[in-house]
Amino acid sequence: MSPNWTKRIIGIAILGVIAAGLAWFAWPRPVPVDLAAVGRGPIEVTVDDDGKTHVRHIYTVSAPVAGKVLRISHPTGERGPSLHVGDGVIANETVVALMQPILPAFIDVRSRDQLEAEVKAADAAIEQQEAEVKRLEAALEFYRTEFQRAQTLSRTQSISAQAFDKARFDMTTNEAALASAKAQIDVRHALRSSVAARLIDPARVTDSAEPTCCVRVLAPASGRVLRIIQDSEAPVPSGAPLVDIGHPLDLEIVADLLSSDAVQTRVGAEARIDGWGGPAVRGKVVRVDPAGFLKVSALGIEEQRVRVTIDFADPPEIWSQLGHDYRVVVHVTTWSAEDALIVPVSALFRKGQDWAVFAVDDGRARTTIVKIGHRNNRAAEVLSGLSSGTQVILHPGDRIGDGIRVVQR
User: What is the mean predicted confidence (pLDDT) over 282-293?
Assistant: First the structure.
């Protein structure tokens, strides 16, 4: 063989190897994907939202009268009941608050001048009434003497019956007038004391903390102190809240659900409570309020909410660490099935108006239209289109299409 033919054969071989390499690199490779199998199993649909624990029966102790409430959680208890959050109380025995009278208010210059003038006027009225008493005493003494003369003359029948009755009438009338005048003196003294009391400076009032001078507010029910609303010593009006009392294990859960979720919630529905730092706890819906309310979300969106109340179904030993107004996450079951054909939600995508999945058949992705029933955030109920054991592609990307070769990642 000549050298030229040898060179040609070697060149053709090299070109063949290059063409084969290019064909190998250009040949489409299977796309690596995540696969999951369609199977039968339990599925439930839940309404999920934040909730909080709430003591079912809270007793708010209020001020029975207007006054100054002493500090409730005083360290030594010298000027208060020394009550702290978490302390136990006994109904009609434990003193939860002590109240004292409010000090008189300060008086401005004009009011003080007016009150001092009223005191002087009251003193003058007392002197005037005392003078009136003296006049009536003198008149009464005269009429008593006249009546005694009339009595003497009547024994000898030297006076007419009319004159005798007139003397007795004058004496009786003046006795009554004198008694009235003396009573008026007492009234004017009382009025003067009332005006003078309004002049008392609050700085001169002696502050006393003896129990005899105070109103003792007792616990209305047995339990524990949940919250001290008015802890510091301060003047409070009548009816002002002071302390909240309740039983820590008398808990229920309150969740404000969207009204669209609340209409799917039924009394007696099962619930799961978690997100509180402990194990999941079973619960049951006991009340769905018939009226909703407007609530603004953290994003500023106005939402119609409905209050749903849930009772614990598990024993208190499991959730005893929970307290009043603790945050929890509730999952209320609106539908469930024990044996349903389910597919992962991450495998579903929209194809027109229908749901579809990429089913794997002989190493290739095949677009399959499916009919979906109930679904949650993890799985969906398959009504038709798939059978148990079918492999489907999870999270299909834009590289996946009908007929594309795939391989499990």
Answer: 95
